[in-house]
UniProtKB/TrEMBL annotation:
Chief location category: nucleus
Protein purpose: This protein is an auxiliary protein of DNA polymerase delta and is involved in the control of eukaryotic DNA replication by increasing the polymerase's processivity during elongation of the leading strand.
The protein's name: DNA sliding clamp PCNA
Classification via PANTHER family: PROLIFERATING CELL NUCLEAR ANTIGEN
Matches recorded under Pfam families: PCNA_C, PCNA_N
Residue ranges occupied by any Proliferating cell nuclear antigen PCNA N-terminal domain in the UniProt entry: 1-125
Assembly, per entry: Homotrimer. Forms a complex with activator 1 heteropentamer in the presence of ATP.
Keywords: DNA replication, DNA-binding, Nucleus
CDD domains: PCNA
Length: 261
């Protein structure tokens, strides 16, 4: 038996919004430690890794490991039926071929339940190596979303350069070029608004703008985003999900010689 209850179903809605443009379907791996999802996007350019810890749920029970293959468009339709204040419970039997979503209004005057068929998906688990990154940049997530959106109007690629002085985002294309620099904030009362940079060595890498804009769909989940970069390894874009977990996106840098790809 698997059962997970979240008083704030809005968190789950935001998680879905954060992944559904990259993934059409995905396997939710449920165990007694929580729910995990790991999948490449359909074009195999980026990887999404989601972790929701069991202790972050209001109630959580998972008697035996369960892998639920889920069509995310179908799940989105079901989540649209939930009010933002509704309490959500996900339930599935062991070896089930469906999962049930139950929504109850805060005053418990309305209860609804939706059953969704599960899919059999080929699972490809990619080992993500532990890496010590040359640069770890933390900045307000809304600022990062805006930078990605603004720069995507200038070119298909964004160069992210990190030095002791700060971090620079650059793009160039037919209409011209754009550069946005963020200096490290010296002292900020609000931690969420700070820009902090931990740097071992300088890094400058090029990434596809389109994917960065997909990643910023996770902005509503967290006031801060963390970018981890090292030469020749994928960029990690991480958003914390309240007290419950995190979502991480991995994106390989573009190779400069191969401009057309």
């Amino acid at each position: 038996m698997f059962e997970a209850r979240l008083v704030q179903s809005s968190i789950f809605k935001k998680v879905l919004e954060a992944i559904k443009e990259l993934l059409n379907e995905a396997t939710f791996d449920c165990s007694d430690s929580g729910i995990q999802l790991q999948a490449m996007d359909s074009s195999h350019v980026s990887l999404v890794s989601l972790n929701l810890r069991s202790d972050g749920f209001d109630q959580y029970r998972c008697d035996r490991n369960l892998s639920m293959g889920i069509n995310l468009a179908s799940m989105t339709k079901i989540m649209k039926c939930a009010g933002n204040d509704d309490i959500m419970t996900m339930k599935a039997q062991d070896n089930a071929d469906s999962v049930t979503f139950m929504f109850e209004s805060p005053n418990q005057e309305k209860m609804s339940d939706y059953e969704m068929k599960l899919m059999n998906l080929d699972q490809e688990h990619l080992g993500i190596p532990e890496t010590d990154y040359s640069c770890v940049i933390k900045l307000p997530s809304a600022e990062f979303a805006r930078i990605c959106r603004d720069l995507s109007q200038f070119g298909e690629s964004v160069v992210i350069s990190c030095t002791k002085e700060g971090v620079k985002f650059s793009a160039a294309g037919d209409i011209g070029s754009a550069n946005i620099k963020l200096a490290q904030t010296a002292n900020v009362d609000k931690e969420d608004e700070a820009v902090s940079i931990e740097m071992q060595e300088k890094v400058s890498l090029t990434f596809a703008c389109r994917y960065l804009n997909y990643f910023t769909k996770a902005t509503p989940l967290s006031p801060q985003v963390c970018l981890s970069m090292s030469a020749e390894v994928p960029l990690v874009v991480e958003y914390k999900i309240g007290e419950i977990g995190h979502i991480r996106y991995y994106l390989a840098p573009k190779i400069e010689e191969d401009e057309n790809n």
